[in-house]
Amino acid sequence: MTPTIHRSVCPYDCPDTCGLLVEVDGDRAVRVSGDPDHPFTRGTLCSKMNRYELTVHSPRRLRTPLLRSGPKGSGTFTPITWEEAVERIASRWRRIVAEHGGEAILPYSYAGTMGLIQRNSGHPFFHRLGASRLDRTICSPAKSAGWKAVMGETPTVDPDEVADSDLVILWGINAAATSVHFMHGVGAAKRSGARVWLIDTYRTPTAGAADRTILIRPGSDGALALGIMHILQRDGLVDREFVSTRVQGYGEFAATILPEYGPERVAALTGVTSMVIEELAAAYAGAAAPFIRLGSGLTRYGNGAMTARTIACLPALVGAYGTKGGGCFPDTATGGAFAMTEVTREDFMARPTRIINMNRLGEALTSPGEPPVMSLYVYHSNPAAIAPDQNAIIRGLSRDDLFTVVHERFMTDTARYADIVLPATSSLEQSDIYRSYGTYLVQRARRVIPPVGESRSNWETFSLLAAALGFDDPFFRQSADELIDHLLALPSPLRSGIDLQRLGEGRAVRLAAATDQSRFLTPSGKIEIFNPAEPEPYPRFLPTHEEHGAYPLRLMTAPTPHGLNASFNERDDLREKQGAMKLKMSGEDAGARNLVDGELVTAWNDLGEVAFRLEVSPAVPPGIAVAEGVWWIEFAPGERTVNALVSQRLTDRGHGSTFYDNRIDVRKR
Ligand SMILES: Nc1nc2c(c(=O)[nH]1)N[C@H]1C(S)=C(S)[C@@H](COP(=O)(O)OP(=O)(O)OC[C@H]3O[C@@H](n4cnc5c(=O)[nH]c(N)nc54)[C@H](O)[C@@H]3O)O[C@H]1N2
Ligand SMILES: Nc1nc2c(c(=O)[nH]1)N[C@H]1C(S)=C(S)[C@@H](COP(=O)(O)OP(=O)(O)OC[C@H]3O[C@@H](n4cnc5c(=O)[nH]c(N)nc54)[C@H](O)[C@@H]3O)O[C@H]1N2
Ligand code: SF4
Ligand SMILES: [Mo]
User: CATH topology of 142-330+516-528 equal to that of 553-668?
Assistant: First the structure.
């Protein structure tokens, strides 16, 4: 048979949401490449997805349901049929519901697939079951809360507008790893003469694309933004007309808050010299269209929402909001594109059930609780690897009385602790529709190859479980494609006038979203530097959880270009590119501990101990240690991975994770 080419979408949790061309030969995807017709992808993919066929047809794919046949965590299982697996789950859940109530069952899911149907297909089922609900706040709710405090529902500009900027600030984002296609626009801006500044805690690969790189003390970016605003005010560089007509509370803010953030104090708080602060402020004030691309890492701190909020105020002072090529880009807000309540079906809940924060899974599984969590159902997530406080989670997963089901493509750290493992399809084996948090494009993808082995999609699995539990609502009997058709038939202002034919052909289509940042969708209609609804009515610097912690080194749990959270560990080619599970430290900090490059070291704090291969790196300043990527324990030099060093504490607003707000020390192994 001659191979055929099909359009699809990258399903991973990445702002770029690339369009794929998949070459299919028989039952197999043999080649995957970037769709040249996709406006953001422009024909290129990242190193992970260039060989997606190696993930889809990996020999590590789970092919049948599995029943645990050894102690929890041992990874010993026996294959069983789907019928038996579903029957065992249904009967165990019936018993748990009778004994403890539905809330003793906890679903846990996040972002293995970003497709709107497959990602959300557990919601109606668990609502109908009366299970506990999960607060899905592991990623960047603090960033959203901070942005919202200032800008309300104001949309984000189109990312391609960065090409019209003359000063790009990549603020706390390693875009060369986490949003490679955004860098196309940055490159275009540079060719037109723009200057690029990067602000990070260590020298990431993105520094290669920047004219200037500022290394800042972790969690102190809010102070840097206040310092810039202090200088703008001091030097008469504020756009008076703009702030007097379009901004709420600037006068009071300038009179009472900004005086506290002179360059000397800000230098002490941030570790950035007052000279560099002055230079950045001058560059910012001098730019016609300064564009801030705001990452998420810098909001994963105890003060994270306040940091995002403070940075969001900065463009207001120079009137950059609404200027083509200027403003601030946190994420695109495309949530309104589809009527998601038609998928999540809150109306299936007989009464509102309790909500458990996903960042505190360790606590939820190990503390008594009313009722206690007696069953955990994990789908498209790998909490034993990616969630805070790995030791607490593994203690919980080891409980003999906890009934754990994991629906996965691979034998992950979490799946190893399951009582029953169900094999999941990959994105090429299932239909879905995708929106993006980094573009304004939507795209529909139909199944392009049959399921590998006996794997089933999230949607199909919940249909089976619903039937086994006697949920007779016809909702559970439709197919994913039928539900997508239903969503598309419902009107949405964001989709008005979009090209349905192109969407039907599987091409990316731009939403009709307004990306005009000159109308402020806030309660006052102005940019709210003063926000009376916030516990702190004005932005000011708040300390991090670990401002004065007991351990000497601040731990950066940063992304790697060769993985995505704990996804892609199945790929030998990508693990080889990373070399080993490393901890990067400065020569100064390594020397002070008699540690040498390449040796095995133990990083520790009150939560746990993790073995790493040490890399002494000039890219890392003294006082911090960097662990890039999330490894599976199977490939780690010791028994634990990076999140054994991360606490379950939450952000100031938004109940977010605080991955970067932790301290460690390091010793020889
Ligand atoms: N290759 C790859 N791509 C990914 C991911 C991945 O793991 N790998 N993850 C995906 C996901 S889930 C998300 S949410 C997105 C975004 O993923 P994020 O984790 O938000 O990644 P970035 O936005 O690049 O931000 C991380 C950067 O912030 C820096 N940083 C940490 N603390 C501070 C600080 O206090 N100040 C400053 N200025 N910088 C700080 C880190 O050193 C790091 O370089 O990326 C997605 N894309
Ligand atoms: N140290 C550290 N930890 C982090 C981060 C960090 O930067 N550093 N980032 C955090 C962030 S921002 C996020 S968003 C979270 C992400 O946390 P998760 O969303 O849990 O991340 P992944 O590791 O990608 O795990 C997704 C799993 O879903 C499976 N999967 C994929 N598709 C499907 C499907 O269709 N069905 C089913 N059933 N399974 C599927 C994959 O095989 C994979 O194992 O991680 C967080 N953890
Ligand atoms: S850049 Fe992001 S969206 Fe594009 S292929 Fe890579 S992981 Fe997928
Ligand atoms: Mo994320």
Answer: no
Residue 280 CA to residue 480 CA, distance in Å, equals 50
Q: Nearest C-alpha to atom 26 of ligand 1 is from which residue?
A: 297
Does ligand 2 come within 6 angstroms of the Cβ of 559? yes
What is the CA(17)–ligand 3 centre distance, in A? 6
Q: How many A from CA of 352 to the centre of ligand 1?
A: 34
When pLDDT is averaged across residues 294-300 and rounded to a whole number, the result is 98
Distance (Å) from CA 431 to ligand 3 centroid: 18
Ligand located closest to 9 CA: 3
Rounded Cα distance between 513 and 279, Å, is 36
pTM of the model: 0.98
Q: Which two tokens stand for residue 185?
A: 């626009």
Number of CB atoms found within 10 A of residue 178's CB: 24
Fold of 4-56: Phosphorylase Kinase; domain 1 (3.30.200)
Instruction: Tell me the CA–centroid distance for residue 421 and ligand 1, in Å.
Output: 31
pLDDT digits (tens, 9 = 90+) for 437-457: 999 999 999 999 999 999 999
Residue indicated by tokens 């309300």: 152
CA distance 189 to 192: 5
Is ligand 3 within 6 A of the CB of residue 12? Answer: yes
User: What is the 140 CA–ligand 4 centroid distance (Å)?
Assistant: 7
From the candidate CATH numbers 3.40.50.12780, 3.30.360.10, 2.60.120.280, 3.40.50.740, the one assigned to the domain spanning 66-138+335-490: 3.40.50.740
Interval 72-101: pLDDT, tens: 999 999 999 999 999 999 999 999 999 999
The second-level CATH assignment, the architecture, of 142-330+516-528 is: 3-Layer(aba) Sandwich (3.40)
Fold for the domain defined by 553-668: Barwin-like endoglucanases (2.40.40)
- The residue whose CA has the least distance to atom 2 of ligand 3 is 14
Domain boundaries, the chain: 4-56, 66-138+335-490, 142-330+516-528, 553-668
184: enclosing H helix or E strand = helix 182-191
Question: Cα torsion at 453, 455, 456, 458 (round to 10°)?
Answer: -160
Pocket test for ligand 1, best of 114, 143, 170, 178 (most atoms within 8 A of CB): 178
